[in-house]
């Protein structure tokens, strides 16, 4: 991951008052970067906590991360701290995890075996090739995996040059970044394999059913079907293997807590329990925000960490820009999910920190979720068992099990209060059957859950989508709404439903891009008209 050259945090000659709407990871990232560059920042969040989905749940001596649990690309987070000339290590302790995942496969005709099998994903390519030789009985899968990672590295490089660390809203923006048309630019564009899906690229290198299914799941960080997502997202595999997977001591919740500490030191005004209902605008641009209590907060610019579609649909309701956005809106919500938080009185020694318990038929699974809009009868389950890295998350001998199964985003016919009990049984049966977690139900001491309805209401995302907007479309599916809005002066977007998309490092980068774009505009005097109109 290539970060931009560090800008020394000299205060801007034209400091702005910026309101950040939403205190998720992207909002916190934006607030810290803006404050480090000399702007006055007020961050408002409707909830009584900051961090958005990176919340924490305590019950009966168990501690659960409620949202994201996998930290990749720590260089992005380090970049945010570097803005203030701070060392991230002084605020946060992270430890590497290798193996990165453990994969459980159920015996099936597709797998070519009636026995359940287990495969560990490790960062070192040579070691992984040996694992794959032992797993498949030959060298084909390992050689194909190595070639796939070479393609992934190339796509990662293209993303670094044209896609990351700048506001991009479409293919034309990448051409502007690339500058004059050249053979080098053409080579990069052709290397994107436009028109091909993640799944097709994966299987062209590794057709073996189980291994390709594992490789598909690099793209599950963006909550989209590998059969419909553009091939450029294969670059995620190299990003992960290059920088690794890390666990923050204290859980993922430690990440927003570190950013809150940094923001407090930099003078950010954090306001929890403050729901923003409207972004106020004039013909010259953003003029302020209005809270649910009727308070008006004048400002020069707004960074919205609210879902991009809901920002225009709700916070800008009634404006011409909202109507225009809706007319052009072809964005589809990404998938949602059911999360089970199970406090167990025992541990399952076969589990690593991160585990995937795979479906038998990924095509049928993704078709159910993304095409038919119904929960998959045989789902893939992600299971986080963190006591292996931090025993204190559960009472001695116990486990704080986090289980996530992707589901469709909310449809009108979905009533998860009625659907959850039966689907809970589907999930627990899957874990017992495929991962050998016998007696799971009897081991449960405490249990809580989060459904698409809860996600929709709790985090103000579009239709309960965990990952913002889907990355579907083999040509332009990787593009999200740009961070710097061209229709409203002084409005910037950050979060999983804005460029560059979902996943912890991407939303942190999104916040940095929004802040950098705003700061760049302020230094160039491009916000002066909007600010001056209220003088």
UniProtKB/TrEMBL annotation:
The answer to whether UniProt assigns keyword Metal-binding to this entry is no
Q: Which family does it belong to?
A: Belongs to the carotenoid/retinoid oxidoreductase family.
Q: What are the protein's GO molecular function terms?
A: oxidoreductase activity
Pfam families, A to Z? Amino_oxidase
InterPro entries, per this entry? Amino_oxidase, Carotenoid/retinoid_OxRdtase, FAD/NAD-bd_sf
Write the record's keywords in alphabetical order, separated by commas.
Answer: Carotenoid biosynthesis, Oxidoreductase
Which protein is depicted? Answer: Phytoene desaturase
The pathway entry for this protein reads as:
Carotenoid biosynthesis
BP-aspect Gene Ontology terms: carotenoid biosynthetic process
Where does the record place the Amine oxidase domain? 25-307
């Amino acid at each position: 991951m290539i970060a931009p050259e560090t800008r020394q945090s000299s205060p801007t000659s034209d400091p702005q008052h910026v309101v950040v709407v939403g205190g998720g990871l992207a909002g916190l990232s934006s607030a810290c970067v803006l404050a480090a560059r000399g702007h006055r920042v007020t961050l408002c969040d409707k909830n009584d906590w900051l961090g958005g989905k990176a919340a924490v749940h305590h019950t009966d001596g168990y501690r659960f991360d409620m949202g994201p649990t996998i930290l990749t690309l720590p260089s992005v987070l380090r970049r945010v701290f570097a803005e203030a000339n701070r060392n991230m290590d002084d605020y946060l302790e992270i430890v590497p995890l290798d193996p990165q995942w453990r994969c459980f496969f159920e015996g099936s005709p597709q797998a070519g075996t009636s026995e359940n099998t287990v495969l560990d994903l490790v960062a070192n390519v040579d070691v992984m090739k040996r694992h794959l030789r032992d797993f498949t009985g030959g060298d084909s899968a390992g050689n194909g995996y190595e070639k796939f990672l070479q393609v992934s590295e190339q796509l990662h490089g293209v993303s670094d040059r044209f896609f990351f660390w700048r506001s991009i809203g479409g293919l034309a923006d990448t051409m502007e970044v690339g500058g004059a048309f050249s053979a080098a630019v053409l080579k990069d564009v052709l290397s994107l394999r436009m028109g091909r899906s993640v799944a097709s690229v994966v299987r062209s290198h590794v057709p073996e059913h189980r291994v390709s299914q594992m490789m598909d799941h690099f793209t599950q960080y963006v909550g989209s079907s590998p059969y419909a997502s553009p091939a450029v997202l294969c670059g995620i595999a190299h990003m992960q293997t290059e920088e690794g997977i890390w666990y923050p001591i204290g859980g993922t919740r430690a990440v927003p807590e570190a950013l809150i500490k940094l923001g407090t030191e930099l003078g950010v005004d954090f306001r929890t329990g403050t729901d923003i209902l409207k972004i106020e605008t004039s013909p010259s641009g953003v003029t302020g925000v209005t809270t649910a209590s009727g308070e008006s907060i004048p400002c020069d610019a707004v960074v919205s960490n609210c879902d991009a579609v809901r920002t225009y649909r709700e916070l800008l309701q009634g404006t011409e820009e909202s109507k225009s956005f809706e007319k052009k809106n072809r964005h589809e919500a990404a998938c949602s999910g059911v999360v089970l938080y199970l406090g167990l009185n025992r541990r399952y020694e076969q589990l690593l920190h991160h585990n995937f318990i795979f479906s038998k038929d990924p095509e049928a699974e993704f078709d159910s979720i993304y095409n038919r809009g119904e929960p998959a009868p045989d789902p893939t389950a992600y299971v986080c068992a963190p006591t292996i890295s931090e025993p204190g998350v559960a009472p001695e001998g116990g486990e704080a099990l986090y289980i996530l199964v992707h589901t469709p985003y909310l449809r009108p016919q979905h009533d998860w209060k009625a659907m959850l009990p039966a689907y809970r049984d589907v999930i627990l049966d899957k874990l017992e059957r495929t991962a050998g977690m016998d007696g799971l139900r009897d081991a449960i001491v405490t249990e809580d859950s989060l459904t698409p309805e809860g996600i929709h209401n709790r985090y103000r995302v579009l239709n309960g989508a965990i990952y913002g907007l889907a990355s579907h479309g083999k040509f332009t599916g990787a593009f999200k709404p740009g961070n710097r809005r061209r229709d409203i002066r002084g409005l910037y977007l950050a979060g999983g439903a804005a460029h560059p998309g979902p996943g912890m490092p991407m939303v942190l980068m999104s916040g940095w891009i929004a802040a950098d774009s705003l700061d760049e505009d302020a230094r160039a005097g491009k916000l002066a008209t909007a600010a001056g109109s209220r003088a």
